[in-house]
Amino acid sequence: MTAQDCLFCRIVAGEIPADVVYQSDTAIAFRDINPQAPTHVLIIPRRHVTTINDLDADDQELVGSLFLAAKAIAQQEGLADDGYRVVMNCGEGAGQSVFHIHLHLLGGRLLNWPPG
Ligand code: AMP
């Protein structure tokens, strides 16, 4: 898949608007267009990675940066004390619909477990 075909690469490039809440050298985060909780933010690497299955050992720092972004955004959004969920779907069977890895950060309501 080229950046031209990938929705999230186009958001990174500024070609498609997004409600950006966080930016770093490696990652950006923006509000989900179809929020499943009062706070629902997607945290994505600037570089295209299709699924978790495409990660390798060189990506450890990149993946770590996504989780540190989640921590920072949770604090920014006032979720740190009450709790929040961070999840990444891998593959169609798990509900992945955009094939550029992204962490979902969800909070602001009671989150049940297990998810559907
Ligand atoms: P997933 O199903 O795990 O691949 O998550 C993809 C998420 O991207 C869904 O929650 C969608 O609502 C969200 N989404 C799709 N298009 C956009 C967009 N243009 N801006 C923000 N979020 C989007």
Describe it for me?
The protein contains two helices and five strands; from the N terminus they run αβββαββ. By secondary structure, the chain is of the alpha+beta class. It has one domain: HIT family, subunit A (2-Layer Sandwich), CATH 3.30.428. The protein has a five-stranded antiparallel sheet, with helices on one face. Strand 1 (20-23) and strand 2 form a beta hairpin. The protein is globular and about 40 Å long. The chain binds adenosine monophosphate. Adenosine monophosphate binds at residues 7, 16, 18, 30, 32-34, 42, 89, 95-98. The site of adenosine monophosphate (AMP) has 13 residues, from loops.
Name its key features.
22% strand, globular, HIT family, subunit A, 5-stranded antiparallel β-sheet, binds adenosine monophosphate
